Hints:
Elements: H1 6-18, H2 31-37, E1 44-48, E2 51-60, E3 70-77, H3 86-100, E4 105-110, H4 115-123, E5 127-137, E6 147-156
Parallel strand pairs: 3-4
Antiparallel strand pairs: 1-2, 2-3, 4-6, 5-6
Domain N-acetyltransferase: 1-145
GO molecular function, one term: acyltransferase activity, transferring groups other than amino-acyl groups
Protein name: N-acetyltransferase
Amino acid sequence: MQTEDADAVLRIYQEGIDTENATFTAKASEWSDWNQSHLPNCRIVATIDSIVVGWAALSGVSSRCVYDGVAEVSIYVSPSVLGKGIGSMLMKALVKESEESGIWMLQASIFPENEGSIALHRKFGFRIVGMRKKIARMNYGKMNGTWRDVAFVERRSSIVGLD
Length: 163
């Protein structure tokens, strides 16, 4: 992912937001905010004919140094290419790059209605740790004011953090 991919990354993020099943966030942030909230490494884009059609990135889960090897996954694919394996390609690359960067635990919170995302994560070794019931309330769209559950999933590396 390069700075010149910013507009496409934010557009695809907004497309995910518009489904109301991707995030509690109501609107894609400015690039500077997005850039600051994600780790500087482990940022990947998928392209078709030089057009960005998906992206994956990691965010830290804590400022405490003991959690430096734990990161939260964000993965978004343009609706125009869903079902074409883009998500799998991104996740495979993200897992590889995260392990090369010393990350031993990946986690995500996924709306249970987002069955495609849950299936993708499970395909790559994530397990559902639990369901976080009514963790937060939507503040936009048709579900404005609705309390939402999220499935909490995690993947422990089989090659990093074993000592």
